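Fold these two proteins, one after the other.
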Amino acid sequence: MSEVAIRPRLDRADVERIVRDALGADLEFTGHEEFKDGFFNAAHALDLADGRRLVVKVAPDKGLKLLSYEVDLMATEIECFERGLAAGAPMPRVWHADTDAGVLVIDRLEGVPLFKARNEIPTDRLLTLRREIGAQAAKFATVTGERFGYPYRDGRMAAETWSEAFLAMTEDILDDIEEQDTALPRPLAAVRALFAAERDLLDEVARPALVHFDLWDGNIFVKRDGDDWSFEAFIDGERAFYGDPLAELVSLRMVPEEEFPQVVDGFLGRPMTEREERRLTLYRMYIMLILVAECKVRGFDAEVEANQLKWATETLERDFTAFGLQGS
């Protein structure tokens, strides 16, 4: 991983000190593990002598160069956890949350990310799990925000209408890409115009629903029950916002094509309409623009950056073409 990575560097003593300050000075620890897969928050596991197994997440230093939407991401994640749990969305228990310090302490789950287990799960069981995952993900959408847009964010990305908020969100990520001088498959002005032309479609969304917006298989945990597998919980809520609940299906769609109808059935209980499919494509373009912009600030190694940029760019190419935005 590159030296410009923004993930905080903490050792075991640092993490133990954080937990003692939060949960009790006399705590004893019996085990430690650092999770090194992420590129944003630091994440460490601690085993306690009292039997608890915890995960400690620490946000990057606020002085680092981040993307426009990444202001107060730990505060966003804490709100997603607290409001999601209150609505019955399966997530780890929160033991401590400090938005100012950028610290979150939660239970460590028993299972594993779904992408690590899927080859061991029979096809029929996997399809049943997909339907359950869709139904559980829909619980986030029962939470209503005060405004559309990102939590804990002042300015134009919080608005009274979904079109105003989402168009501001897309403007900001396109501004990030322009500042980086990163190439897109279409001119920036044309991409901006594409989103702006869909204002009426976006205004069909009347309620600011909580959207986790990062429910790919790495953030979906399952656990083995004897010879069977069961869904356990969702993790990582730092991309969350209040908007169109259908946007939840963007990351849930990152599965083999034959599995996605089961997700939709669990999430909606019916197929999507053509206009819903169109809105969903807008949200997929937005997350792909985020993935493009991340490549310049995350400190990926060359291979990871090349793979992410290739996937995001190819997906944008297909979606731009589907919306009639042809290349030069």
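Now the second one:
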Amino acid sequence: MFIHRLPSFVPAILPNLIWEKKADATENKVYFTFDDGPSPEITNFVLEELDKFQAKATFFCIGKNMRSFPDLAQTVQLAGHSLGNHTMNHVNAWKVSHEAYLANKMACDEVFSEMGIPSIGFRPPYGRVNRALINQVSEVGPIYMWTLLTGDYNSSLSHVSITKNCLKNIQAGSIIVFHDSQKAYPHLKIILPEFLAYCRDNGFQLSAL
């Protein structure tokens, strides 16, 4: 069974990570985030869909993709969306040394600096971190996790099950993860318009982190 929403004890034992934005509950804001881009065609599709609903979002970008598609990264920023660090090569914190992971994260920071794009913070690939990384990375900026994981990259899920299990759990302050990647696109092209319409119809304001 795919877990779209983590049990409440997980955020409770990792309070230094940002799982939702409770302060915005009274403003009815929801936060769509997109990991693993930028990716031609797919990121452009996302931008077009967001624009249809006058929605803003956050893109957690892989450094090597920003280097490969710098104009696309700039387009995301110019459209009024925010961008964040998702490491240089989508590295898994549980499979490399602490030093190697930090170096990969910092390499992505350098790409942001070179391109003159501010990073709003960091999201670890796969959501995998450890105490040492949390302590060190959080000293220089926020670490964003999520309230809801759509699982758009998972081919064993159906788009019907994704919408059924996620839409009912959207609340003010929710941070929702999508992916602007080739792997996720078969689901994303169907579910993103549905999520956008649901939020519009239920009075949620879609904002960038």
